[in-house]
Design brief:
The chain is of the alpha/beta class and 389 residues long. It folds into three domains: 142 residues, Globins (Globin-like); 97 residues, Translation factors (Elongation Factor Tu (Ef-tu), domain 3); 118 residues, Nucleotide-binding domain of ferredoxin-NADP reductase (FNR) module (Rossmann fold), CATH 3.40.50.80. 42% of the residues lie in helices and 20% in strands. The strands form two sheets. The chain has a six-stranded antiparallel β-sheet, with helices on both faces.
């Protein structure tokens, strides 16, 4: 927790710092990449830098952490920290890099706020930073230990055993370890990072859900081509170049959107490519003979849009208490509901634990519907592809 001396200073300066965080983070990343271009080339996602989402995520998490220290001094925002720590671990972030971030972040704060950053203010916000950084370092160390990998040494060479065209813009890759050993076990709902070498020499990274059942000798990832400006560099490269027999660098599995133990009812709600963690969860439930109630809801553009649509139906049918609900913006004669997902119309058993995955507007809308139905915010779990805004 914050020291007694820092609390009133952070409370008094939080509005000013929070209001300037967008400018601070823009200046921070400019300084950081000027000094360490290799971080932009080989660690940070250049698309998220170009569209500003990484800056928004950093500003939001910093403000949220500082606010939490003031409003709830007796506990940490562990859900937020866990999500960030899993992402950092999957990228190979090291504890030493937090010192580099500290140097350039605080230089950016001084440049933006000027004389308002007195020694007292600097000490107080230094506390905020290191409370957050050290908490993340501790969580990431535990994640590395659980994964059986050293800090920063999360990468393993895997071979593409099979490439499957799922839809017009989605392809699946079945991966096996290049050394001939078994694929590392993972928990249903987790993801892995894929690192590829691009024509300009950069090694860019993106995360993909493991869309197969845990415990199998091979992994499967499902990759949607991300068009637009900026386009997804990793997804575009995989679609254009990755073929059977090729080797790719893949991280150990990470991610905190995993099924809980027990027999309580579940809501698995997804939209678009956000459906990819759901086959792993459903396959695990079916393989373990689970009888827990499972409501599966998916929204997409049209019946031909979802990847693994037939597999999803088969897995839901395999659950004694599984039900599937579909929404398509262009439903045709599929029997699905028209428009966007609306979980307020679903019959959810008492005590349902929701798991959400999809684009940000979908997550916000469904989370709002669930809160309106009285579901506690702490019980709503979600995964967002990209920076968490």
């Amino acid at each position: 927790m914050l020291s007694e001396q820092a609390v009133p200073v952070v409370r008094a300066t939080l509005p000013a710092v929070g209001g300037a965080l967008d400018r601070i983070t823009e200046r921070f990343y400019g300084r950081l990449f000027a000094a360490h271009l290799e971080l932009l080339r080989d660690l940070f996602n250049r698309g998220n830098q170009a569209n500003g989402e990484q800056r928004q995520a950093l500003a939001g998490s910093t403000a949220a952490f500082a606010t939490a220290l003031l409003e709830h001094p007796d506990r940490r925002p562990d859900a937020m920290l866990a999500r960030i720590a899993h992402k950092h671990a999957s990228l190979g972030v090291t504890s030493e890099q937090y010192k580099v971030v500290h140097e350039h972040l605080f230089a950016a704060i001084v440049e933006v706020l000027g004389e308002a950053v007195t020694p007292e203010v600097a000490r107080a916000w230094d506390e905020v930073y290191w409370l957050m950084a050290n908490a993340l370092i501790a969580v990431e160390a535990r994640l590395h230990q659980e994964a059986g990998v050293a800090e920063g040494q999360v990468w393993r060479s895997m071979e593409i055993a099979e490439r499957r065209e799922e839809t017009a813009d989605t392809v699946s890759f079945v991966l096996r370890p290049a050394d001939g050993g078994p694929a590392v076990a993972f928990r249903p709902g987790q993801y892995a990072s894929v690192r590829v070498a691009l024509p300009d020499g950069a090694r860019q990274i993106s995360q993909y859900s493991l869309s197969c059942a845990p415990g199998r000798p091979q992994w499967r990832i499902t990759v949607k081509r991300v068009d637009g400006d900026p386009a997804g560099e990793v997804s575009s490269w995989l679609h254009a170049h990755a073929r059977e027999g090729d080797a790719v660098e893949v991280s150990a599995p990470f991610g905190d959107l995993v099924l809980p133990e027990g027999d309580g009812p579940l809501l698995l709600a997804s939209a678009g490519i956000g459906s990819t963690p759901m086959p792993a969860m459903l396959d695990h439930l079916a393989a373990t003979g689970s009888t827990r109630p499972g409501v599966v809801a998916h929204a997409d553009r049209a019946p031909a849009s979802p990847a693994h649509a037939a597999e999803l139906r088969h897995l839901v049918d395999a659950l004694p208490q599984g039900t599937l609900h579909l929404w398509y913006e262009e439903p045709g004669d599929s029997g699905a509901r028209p428009g966007r997902a609306n979980v307020s119309v679903l019959d959810l058993p008492a005590g349902t634990t929701p798991y959400l995955c999809g684009p940000l507007p979908f997550l916000r809308a469904v989370r709002g519907d669930l809160l309106g139905r009285g579901v506690a915010a702490a019980d709503i779990h979600y995964e967002v592809f990209g920076p968490d805004l």
